[in-house]
Amino acid sequence: MSQVYRVIVVDDHPLYRDGVARTLDAEDDIDVVATGESADEAVSLAGEHRANVILLDISMAGGGHSALARILQNDPDARVIMLTASEEDKDVLSALDAGAKGYVLKGVGGGELVGIVRTVASGETYVAPSLAARVLVALQKGGGRKTSRFDALTDREREILEFVSQGLSNKEIALKLDLMEKTVKHHMTHILSKLEVRNRVEAAVLAREEWGG
Question: Are 113 and 24 within 8 A, CB to CB?
Fold first, then answer.
């Protein structure tokens, strides 16, 4: 029998996640060994199951970029495909810079997704054709583009960090964004980890150096 690829699917939309899992699991050479719905689950499942491919939703709870970074920190050889509805160049580039081996738009058909999983599992990289040309142009303009720790931040984390750089407390940020203070604290933990700093003051200084102001 030919090799069976072990796959993990993590997405916070149950219908989409279950549909992807069923589509892949129906193939003789693909075995969906686990599913999850958050970044923390993705990291835990990746450590528990030695999967050939991990599919991550970029916008899930905890952030797909965060999960990607943490998974690759634990296992640099992990092959991760990002699932997203975003066609923004910055999202594609930051995912690829961070080590993703695939970038797939959620409108992809089941048969095509199966082929993409096989492609990435076999050692190749995949970017949705509608994005590939633009990504190539952006990379050429950027001269290969320098990877930044800020690329791993989610949009929400960037938003919170901007307020931190302005001197706002977690409570003040929570009020501005209509979030619970503990949610802001949770985001701050991830921000400090991704930026590799010890506290919010260092994070604020780094942010001002990166973004100006």
Answer: yes
